[in-house]
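Hi there,

I know you've been waiting on this one. I reran it after we fixed the sequence typo, so this is the corrected version. Both the input and the resulting structure follow.
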Amino acid sequence: MRRSWTKVAGWIVLALAALFFVWNGSEKLAGSEEMTAMFRALGYPDWMRLAVGAAEIAGGICLLIPSMTLWAAAFLGCLMLGASFSELRAGHTFEALIPAQWLVLFSLVVWFKRPRRARGKVRA
């Protein structure tokens, strides 16, 4: 029974993450003032905002497809790694923590969703 609760909790976390990334990606594609200003402050052109927005939407949707969850988490983790480095490069130390938190979450998702045969080979 405990395993089923953890599975449900995991899917709730993934659903909330997917909702966040689809929403955030939509804001980037829509060209909200906040997102446009953020990308300009980081020194990126508008096409980069659109590419990141589309990537976030695709990654968010794919998080909810069980056969793609692992790959979507890895993809979004890489995207968040890039976001953290971009914020740090711009001197925004505190702002770099937000994508870093997502990176931690997606690293955990990748760890728990990795194939079972790979789990058996890992030694503590």
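Quick highlight: Helices lie at 2-30, 33-41, 46-63, 69-89, 97-113, 116-121.

Best,
R. S.
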